[in-house]
């Protein structure tokens, strides 16, 4: 060879090697970069909440009055302090100055505020020293001056007024009212009994208003003192805790007829209950105790209670080092602020049981106020220092347990895996478990591959080893054209044509599973008897399918005919009703049978094409040598051809499996998209891919759902990456074992 040509060839080889290496590295780098960009969106899910001091100022208290309660607006621009005389002092935290004082009118001259209950961030229920109760609401009206400077006009509005009690209270009164004029007042009496006053206003058809008043006395456990009370927003349910750990619940929905629903020892060591508060949604009850414990409870129906809902301990949150004195639930989600006697503040999320942060004021904390949006805090300590804080707590409901473990949600009878990203109300618990979605991905893929792998591999074996060249030239292009059909078309046909057709003929499908193998076996036996005749001898050798096709058509026709007969005979004419009534399985028209056929139809061309190429590329000399030694065609295929082509067959199967895992449109259109964990073929599922397609248009950018969907994409990416890596390792081992094929 001319040395010039030889050097040129070597130079071209080096250039090609470098270009191919560079291209391969670029592909690997691009894949890793895509994974990093997707994962980057999910990182904030697990970041710790942040709290930052915004402003601090000293309180001006010339009269020396004690501060009973504090409040702050959503933007930390207005702080409110309530004094014992009923005076509301308004501060500007940014400038640290007293802006205005508004004194509410006392019920009688000289009356002072004995106790305060905050029923909302800016709403105060006041118990006056003469026994009168009033409900006051603070609001701010913004205005802009000539220079565009924004100022606030504070206002205090009295929303309710209740006359004094006929008996002296022990200093604890809860009051609730609604827009229709109904009122409920619960008072703790000195003997630790509870006085419940209910006033119901009804209007007749003729516009006449009638007011009914009912008074009830509720007795607590003997020799136990009631130390904490909680009343829901409409006054229909009352909770009480005692100094020996007894938890009580009454139903007050019928005026004058209270019903004791629960009376149970909350703690085995009889520790005292020091604080009660209802979480957002008023289903769960937060309980603080004398040993610093914080727990949440809600009613659960169990076999032990005969199906009646009883209070049960559900979540245990981070413990304090001293008794818990105050519980403040968030008004936006299921987070809970708890304050102990030492002034330490804990922020925990109820559902995830995640301890978010600890705030220690340094001095004895007297008051804690949380803004309505939960993004700001106001603390007042014993030295008269008030501090505002910015709180960044974007994803408190997310933890490894809520994403992959069982969680006990409100109104559920036991811990479950659940996905429910939204609801009709704002007080529900987001259920973001990815386990049902991973299960749905695996379930749909398994059923699809059970249908696709046998058909694709046997078809490839027949086409490459038993069919003639003319037959191969027609079948292989036809199957490859199947791969060009858009998945949305397959999903459309599966959902609107195949699913209704299957629903009408489910028994026929199961009859065909029995008849098709039976007819094939009978045809094979007949073929063994007739293959030596001239006509069948000419028809054989590559055209056997021409005889089997009518047999398959006849088997399917018989199944369609016998399906209704067996349905009437075995299932009283209604298979779906029998399935639900006797087996407890609901038939979903968009089920895994539909997915098996539709998704399998999309996967078959990939597996068939790669497997057929691998089988056809086995050297003809190996096949001829086997046949020359007396082996049959099937023995040659089983012992020689399949092992030699196994690396390619395995690679094709794994590529088809990866396609099935990542498929979106078919499973999105052909399933019910129900995130349940059940292996039944008669119901649907929701895989990761279709869940992303369904949820991402409605997910707020940067929100918890948005980031969890990106985490789903990371999981889907990792599943396919690991699957392809394992497949490549297995393929290399097979290739090393069975030669270069």
Give start-end ranges of low-pLDDT stretches. none
Mean pLDDT comes to 85
* Integer-rounded radius of gyration: 37 Å
Biggest sheet statistics: 4 strands, antiparallel
Shape: elongated
| Biggest sheet: strand arrangement | 1-28-27-26
Q: Class by helix and strand content?
A: alpha+beta
Verbal overview:
By secondary structure, this protein is of the alpha+beta class. Helix content is 39%, strand content 28%. The protein contains 15 helices and 30 strands. The protein has a 4-stranded antiparallel β-sheet with strand order 1-28-27-26, with no helix packed on it. A 4-stranded antiparallel β-sheet has the order 2-3-4-5, with no helix packed on it. Helix 3 (435-466) crosses helix 10.
Brief sketch in words of this structure:
By secondary structure, the chain is α+β, with helices and mostly antiparallel strands.
Based on the model shown, name its key terms.
single chain; 741 residues; alpha+beta; 15 helices; 28% strand
Write the layout of secondary structure elements.
Layout lengths: L2 H40 L7 E9 L8 E6 L6 E5 L3 E6 L4 E7 L9 E8 L2 E6 L4 E12 L5 E13 L9 E6 L5 E6 L5 E10 L5 E10 L7 E6 L5 E6 L3 E6 L7 E7 L7 E6 L6 E5 L4 E8 L7 E8 L7 E6 L5 E6 L3 E6 L4 E7 L4 E6 L5 E6 L3 E8 L7 H5 L14 E2 L10 E2 L2 H32 L2 H14 L4 H18 L1 H25 L3 H6 L5 H26 L4 H9 L8 H25 L3 H9 L4 H30 L2 H6 L17 H8 L8 H34 L4
Helix pairs in contact: 1-15, 3-10, 3-12, 4-10, 5-10, 6-8, 10-12, 11-12, 12-15, 14-15
């Amino acid at each position: 060879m001319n040395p010039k040509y030889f050097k040129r060839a070597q130079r071209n080889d080096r250039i090609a090697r470098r270009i191919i290496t560079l291209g391969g590295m670029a592909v690997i780098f691009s894949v890793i970069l895509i994974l990093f960009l997707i994962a980057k969106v999910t990182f904030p899910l697990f970041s710790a909440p942040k709290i930052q001091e915004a402003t601090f100022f000293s309180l001006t208290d010339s009269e020396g009055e004690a501060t009973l309660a504090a409040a702050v607006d959503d933007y930390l621009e207005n702080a409110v302090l309530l004094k014992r005389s009923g005076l509301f002092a308004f501060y500007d935290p940014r400038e640290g100055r007293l802006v205005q004082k508004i004194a509410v009118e006392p019920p009688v001259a000289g009356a002072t505020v004995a106790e305060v209950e905050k029923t909302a961030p800016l709403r105060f229920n006041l118990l006056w020293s003469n026994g009168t109760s009033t409900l006051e609401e603070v609001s701010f009206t913004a205005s802009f001056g000539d220079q565009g400077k924004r100022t606030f006009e504070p206002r205090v509005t009295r929303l309710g007024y209740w006359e004094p009690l006929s008996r002296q209270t022990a200093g604890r009164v809860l009051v609730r009212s609604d827009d229709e004029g109904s009122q409920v007042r619960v008072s703790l009496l000195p003997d630790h009994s509870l006085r419940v006053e209910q006033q119901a206003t009804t209007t007749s058809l003729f516009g006449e208003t009638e007011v009914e008043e009912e008074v009830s006395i509720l007795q607590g456990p003997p020799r136990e003192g009631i130390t904490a009370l909680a009343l829901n927003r409409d006054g229909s349910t009352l909770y009480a805790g005692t100094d020996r750990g007894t938890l009580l619940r009454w139903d007050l929905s019928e005026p004058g007829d209270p019903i004791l629903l629960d009376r149970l020892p909350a703690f085995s060591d009889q520790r005292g209950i020091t604080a009660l508060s209802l979480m957002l949604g008023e289903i769960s009850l937060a309980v603080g105790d004398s040993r610093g414990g914080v727990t949440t409870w809600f009613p659960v129906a169990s076999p032990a209670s005969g199906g009646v809902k009883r209070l049960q301990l559900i979540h245990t949150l981070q413990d304090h080092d001293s008794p818990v004195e105050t519980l403040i639930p968030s008004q936006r989600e299921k987070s809970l602020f708890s304050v102990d006697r030492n002034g330490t503040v804990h922020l925990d999320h109820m559902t995830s049981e995640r301890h978010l942060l600890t705030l220690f004021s340094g001095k004895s904390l007297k008051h804690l106020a949380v803004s309505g949006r939960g993004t700001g805090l106001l603390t007042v300590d014993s030295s008269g220092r008030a501090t505002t804080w910015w709180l960044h707590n974007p994803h408190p409901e997310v933890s490894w347990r809520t994403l992959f473990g069982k969680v006990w949600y409100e109104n559920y009878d036991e811990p479950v895996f659940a996905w429910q990203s939204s609801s009709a109300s704002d007080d529900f618990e987001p259920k973001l478990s990815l386990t049902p979605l991973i299960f749905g991905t695996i379930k749909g893929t398994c059923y699809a591959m059970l249908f696709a792998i046998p058909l694709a591999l046997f078809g490839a074996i027949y086409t490459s080893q038993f069919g003639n060249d003319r037959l191969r030239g027609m079948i292989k292009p036809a199957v490859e054209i199947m791969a060009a059909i858009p998945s949305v078309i397959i999903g459309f046909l599966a959902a609107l044509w195949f699913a209704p057709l299957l629903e009408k003929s489910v028994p026929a499908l199961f009859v065909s599973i029995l008849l098709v193998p039976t007819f094939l076996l009978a045809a094979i036996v007949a073929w063994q008897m007739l293959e030596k005749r001239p006509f069948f001898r000419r028809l054989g050798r590559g055209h056997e399918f021409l005889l089997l096709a009518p047999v398959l058509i006849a088997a399917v026709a018989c199944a369609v005919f016998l399906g209704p007969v067996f349905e009437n005979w075995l299932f009283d004419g209604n298979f779906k009703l029998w399935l639900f009534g006797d087996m407890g399985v609901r038939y979903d028209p968009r089920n895994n049978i539909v997915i098996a056929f539709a998704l399998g139809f999309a996967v078959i061309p990939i597996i068939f094409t790669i497997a057929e190429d691998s089988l056809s590329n086995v050297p003809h000399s190996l096949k001829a040598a086997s046949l020359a030694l007396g082996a049959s065609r099937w023995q040659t295929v089983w012992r020689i051809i399949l092992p030699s082509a196994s690396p390619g067959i395995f690679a094709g199967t794994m590529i088809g499996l990866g396609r099935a895992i990542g498929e979106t449109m078919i499973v999105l259109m052909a399933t019910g998209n129900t995130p349940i964990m059940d292996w039944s073929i008669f119901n649907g599922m929701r895989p990761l891919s279709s869940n992303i397609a369904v949820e991402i248009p409605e997910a707020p950018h940067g929100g918890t759902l948005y980031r969890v969907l990106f985490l789903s994409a990371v999981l889907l990416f990792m599943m396919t990456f690991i699957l392809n890596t394992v497949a490549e390792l297995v393929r290399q081992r097979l290739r090393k074992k069975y030669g270069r094929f």
